[in-house]
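Changelog entry: the Hemerythrin-like domain-containing protein record was regenerated in this release. Current contents:
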Amino acid sequence: MPGPVDKLWVESPIPLVHTPQYETKRNDIFTTGASHMALLHNAILRGFNSIYNQAPSLPRTHHAPFIGYATAWTALVISHHDAEESDLFPAAFVAGVVDMADYLATTARYPASFSGATLRAKMDAFRALFQEHFHAEIATIAALSTEGAGDPEAGEGRASEQWGKRSVTRAGWTDVFVFLVLHMDREWEEGMWGN
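Regenerated structure tokens:
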């Protein structure tokens, strides 16, 4: 059985976002929706952090698989935010993620040309906007709970659930979906999301 994971690799430099359900103990449709979005965002943030932290120290023999790993992350982010761009939240950082994806596509053809420093510089170029966006979205959705907006009988919960599934599954089942599942943390927030 594997030992404990050093969470610094996945919980920094961008801090994870706490779920509104954990923070408020509320269970209404918007608090629940924002909490589920936070779990998805945290998986994406863990991916960012792990790529950012590991990129500079990779041995050449690990370049090709790492490029595939980072490419799955960019596909997940682009797919997730393509849906949001048209439906919910415009995302100013996406051009930086696309630039990162282009760099990874180039280095995938020639893994020896991969540079961890170059990849980190590309990530640094969008990191602040990315962090702000991924944290602000949760607060925006959760705030609807206190506004009394929405009617659970009108289908907002079902529509949100369907949108969430589409935003993830359109990116790919064999790489992106697996990436997402592997970046969920069953111990997060005192194990509240373990099941």
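The mean pLDDT is 82.
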